[in-house]
Amino acid sequence: MGMFKAIRIDKATLVALTQFDESELMEGDVTVRVEWSTVNYKDGLAVTGKAPVVRRFPMIAGIDLAGTVETSSHPDWKPGDKVICNGWGMGETHLGAYAEKARVKGDWLVRLPDGMTTRDAMAIGTAGYTAMLSVLALEKHGLKPADGPVVVTGAAGGVGSVAIAVLSKLGYHVIASTGRTSEEGYLKGLGAAEIIDRAELSGAAKPLAKERWAGGIDSVGSTTLANLLSMTKYRGAIAACGLAAGMDLPSSVAPFILRGVCLLGIDSVMCPIELRKQAWARLASDLDHAKLAEITQEIGLDEVIEAGARVLAGQVRGRIVVKIS
After folding, report:
1. 18, 184, 220, 243: which has the highest count of C-beta atoms within 10 A?
2. Cβ contacts of residue 228 below 8 Å, gap of 6+?
3. Contact status, residue 152 vs residue 216, Cβ threshold 8 Å
4. CA–CA distance from 203 to each of 71, 128, 259 (Å)?
5. Considering Cα of 108, then 70, then 101, then 58, what sign does the dihedral take?
6. Do the strands 262-265 and 110-111 form a parallel or antiparallel pair, or are they unpaired?
7. pLDDT tens digit string along 127-137?
8. Would you say the C-alpha torsion 228, 296, 98, 113 has a positive or negative sign?
């Protein structure tokens, strides 16, 4: 047993990069040497204390990790295996990823896909994995590129950036909604065909509005999601995976019972392992690695707390990877 670096959260708003004793790690049958993590919206909430994300103390923050198995008593994993872990309460109820070591359940782990590095995996992270879960849900609904345009909200953020890159590669006409219209060049570089100002979706939603898209991926929630639903074409679907603008949904039943629109809920935290494996396999094949490099910036563990504040303020484009070891 020994000490290692970690971002520790104690009660109140005490958050610091400090030394953590390995003997304090929680139960689990696999210990991972963490190589890379990332900064997601939920991480920003945790390290800034802006929302009660953390539900036990002390906590090591961080909901995403990629690294190498050090020790394992789980039959599926052995030392040297490269693994990914997203969600499962890490950084909330289970000691998380902003640390040089993590102890987790082997049933939570996904094997790193061939051709993908641990850094690549965290450049994708929970945001990109959530984007792919959304794409899979839309495909299961039956959505195809020939059905018409798809809309992506929060387009310059992590979920939005990966969603645009994947959907455009799959042949969809992607409409990107953003409050940062200065990012038009960036978004079109990812594959967006059109850019709309988020103001178009921020007013009070009509029960039904003009049909504009066959489907969409929304990470914003609230009035934005209500407007998306009211503008979705007959028998279309919206995958809802975020609540950056709020948890409310000021909508009506009209889109559902008059146009047969479906609202698809996307949960990344407790998602079944087989669906996780499918999502990561698709990310390995359907996400252009050159585009992934375009959307990624790298920081160190000592820069995470400041980066979390910038994510909440909407000042981060794309993805942040955190070099741990």
Report:
1. 220
2. 151, 153, 201, 213, 216, 218, 238
3. yes
4. 53, 28, 21
5. positive
6. unpaired
7. 999 999 999 99
8. positive
